[in-house]
What does this fold into?
Amino acid sequence: MRRHMITPRPDWQARAEFLGFNYANIEGGSYWDEAAAWEFTAAEVMTLDAATAEIERLCLLAVDHAVRTGRAATLGIPDNSWPLVVESWRRREPSLYGRMDLRWDGVTPPKLLEYNADTPTTLYEASVVQWDWLTAVRPEADQFNSLHEALIGRWGELKLGGYGRVHFSCLADYIEDRGTVEYLRDTAIQAGIDAPFIDLGDIGWNGRHFLDLQNARMEAIFKLYPWDWLLRDQFGSHIPQAPTHWVEPAWRLALASKGILALLWEMFPNHPNLLPASREAGRTGGEEVRKPLFGREGANITAPGIETGGSYTGDGFVFQEWCPLPCVDGRYPVFGSWVIGGKPHGLGIREDPTPITNDTSCFVPHYFMPAGAS
Amino acid sequence: MRRATALNLVILSGGLTLFGTAALVSEQRRAAACARARENHLEDSDPNCRHASGSSGSSYHGGYYAGRSSGIGGSGSSGGFFGFGESGSVARGGFGGFGRGGSGE
It folds into this structure.
């Protein structure tokens, strides 16, 4: 795999605007970065695909093990929230999507850094914007990206399972969250689902049901808002008694916790797609990175010579072997491998000038040459 | 191998048009579907007519739901498509207490 420096399209800003990609620029800089692109071989894409499928398999085994053996403490999930996770798993409530962040150098196997299994974003740019880039800039090439049709297909499955009407919700003031939710609404609508939007703060509770602004019962809610926050909110205690279905379901909290990294290593030691991890410091056998169990966007990370700020220090930590990202052209790439309905369906790459990916790290498009192409 | 099919290009084309104006386009779809339902006198049972803005009496915000609520909710029944008309008080603002610059990751 190779990182190429290329000339951005002169009209890329206008193109982003046309696509409704209204967070292409963030904090005074460009979030979408097409001054570079990653090229893969078909075999390398197959490697990513296979690793993602394998890690997904391990993760589901780990959740099942956690539920059967009561590993809430390892995952840092409070006792009063654990029954909701257990019940959700036992009912096999369906998942829509998730994104594994992988460390990969193209030589050694991809390694799981964390699984954004609850509230992954960077979806629209991975699914639509980089595909649009491909058709304009590398039309002869291919892309690891069937996200759009997979999302529509998955919503179609959920609809058949009774999710005919799904309220979509997030904190509407956050432009990236709202953009992600609007894109997911779009895919749901294309699958034939009735998909109104409601701000999280507008959701009502009447003592028995969650209600929308028209006081209609909310049968199913897609929420771009973490379970660990949802359960701590004022209405969180109502969730177990309400008949509402949630997307993502509550069992995804087990995977969203970085405690799952410790459980995975405990269950599958020396697996080529995992890094040593433990809830206790000093158990991995080498230098370690300390991550908050429910941190996000690179906050409160401590690694050799690195300490990032943030407010996620209250729920405990996991310690993972420090395996620095490769540095290419002064950038540290993280490979975000998307899972839709339990299957690998695409790739989004983010880069940062520091070894820790954060909420201002750039999104860089990719392509690959089909097998047999020169 | 992983490339979207020609069909996807068609879908994407529609998707690109939809995104950013998803609400508008979906409202247009719903309005058209509701109009068809009206022609068949099925507007009261067609969910599109509960959402289609611009069709009189069927505004998503207030019109149809409000009217149904007063009739059904008052009786204590939970009839209607998804149980309109919850009686009793409704508390709001119980979600969203954490923000911290967004929820995604």
Observations:
- The first strand of chain A starts at residue 2 and ends at 5.
